[in-house]
Amino acid sequence: MFFLASNCFITNGIRRSLLIDLQRFKQYFLSSELGELLSKRVIPEKDIPEKYKPIIETLVGEDILLQLSQEEIDLFPQIDDIFDVPSFINDAIIDVSDSVPNFSKIFNELKPLLCRHVEIRFFKSIDISVVLHILEEVKDSVIEVIDIYMPYNSFYERHEEYLRILDTNMRLRMIYIHSCPIDLKIESILVLRDSRFCACIFIMDSMKKIIMRKLYMN
User: Fold this and answer.
1) Is residue 76 within 8 Å of residue 6, measured between CB atoms?
2) Could you tell me the sign of the dihedral formed by the alpha carbons of 13, 50, 56, 67, in that order?
3) Is the pTM of this model over 0.70?
């Protein structure tokens, strides 16, 4: 009998399912059929279609699925997914398509809501001074994490300065670069390519990272 580990959760979408391993911070995309099956958490081996057995073996090797007896399953209670936070809202997304808004006003409005995470998405080119202004505005705020999306050309022109900003500002967790060209040439940065992204760029010797990918945001 297979048991979905207590630290793993499944979200079933319209076309596919997402399995999240909270302990190892890993994600796996599954077919909707397999996602529905694993959502039962306890799966008899006879209920697994033959076509999914290789995937099941992989999940067992990752300790996501455990082969247990019914007595052993009782030793793994389900994690309670209900928790309380002091915030009225946890996250805010700010889309900037034309003129730069008054970030000071926006952050002041978010302050009484105790918003902890802000994602700012720039659809057009911006100057680095805008990013510096944002970081200055949140310096003494309750906002703990900021993620920024910006066009590739904005980043590339002053990428060395952006790397320094990432290293010296703890609130700035990540910069996402969109509208990337096929050929990326940035010295002293490790570039990894795969089918999902135009490229992933990781800052060496740092916990922070810049992810470069093609984004199609409406």
Assistant:
1) yes
2) positive
3) no
